[in-house]
């Protein structure tokens, strides 16, 4: 991302696709956190596991282009969609607590121990400047 700083800062949209059909990653969430609307390729999140706005799921390249043109012609619709995406990002997605508590909670459960969920980190790495931000 450091090498793409200028390009990313000028972009508004991206298309997220998978190397293997149906294989889902955190890429759409990463794109949202840097301000890009992640349109979803038909083979990427076939079962809509990510719970993204339906508008972001495209059928083909024509649908993708039509949606971008529609958003460019209607800035308020773009802002509303971006806001909807931002609102879906929970703090535990960013601070690491979702993964840590999920992993350690399940390990403790499997081993018969009690696990007290832990808070996430307070400092987050800024991928564009190699600095920590609060």
SS-based class: mainly alpha
Number of domains: 2
How are strands sequenced across the largest beta sheet? 1-2
- What's the overall geometry? elongated
Average pLDDT: 86
Q: What's the SSE pattern?
A: HEHEHHHHEE
Number of helices: 6
How does this model look, in words?
It is a single chain. The model has no long low-confidence stretch (mean pLDDT 86). With 134 residues, the protein is mainly alpha-helical. The protein folds into 2 domains: 89 residues, no CATH class; 44 residues, no CATH class. It is elongated and about 55 Å long. It has a two-stranded parallel ribbon with strand order 1-2. α3 packs across α4.
Please describe the structure with a list of short key phrases separated by commas or semicolons.
6 helices; two-stranded antiparallel sheet; mainly alpha; 134 residues; two-stranded parallel sheet
Describe the secondary structure blueprint for this structure:
Elements: H1 5-10, E1 13-16, H2 27-33, E2 37-40, H3 61-73, H4 75-88, H5 91-94, H6 97-111, E3 124-126, E4 131-133
Gist?
This protein has 134 residues and is mainly alpha-helical.
């Amino acid at each position: 991302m450091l090498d793409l700083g200028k390009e990313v800062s000028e972009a508004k949209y991206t298309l997220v696709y998978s190397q293997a059909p149906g294989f889902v990653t955190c890429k759409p969430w990463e794109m949202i956190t840097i301000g890009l609307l992640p349109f979803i390729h038909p083979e990427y999140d076939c079962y809509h596991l990510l719970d993204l706005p339906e508008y972001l799921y495209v059928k083909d390249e024509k649908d993708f282009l039509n949606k971008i043109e529609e958003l460019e012609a209607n800035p308020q619709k773009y802002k509303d969609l971006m806001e909807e995406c931002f609102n879906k990002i929970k703090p535990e997605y960013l601070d690491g607590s979702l993964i840590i508590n999920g992993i350690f909670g399940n390990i403790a459960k499997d081993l018969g121990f009690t696990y007290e969920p832990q808070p996430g980190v307070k400092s987050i790495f800024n991928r564009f400047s190699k600095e920590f931000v609060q």
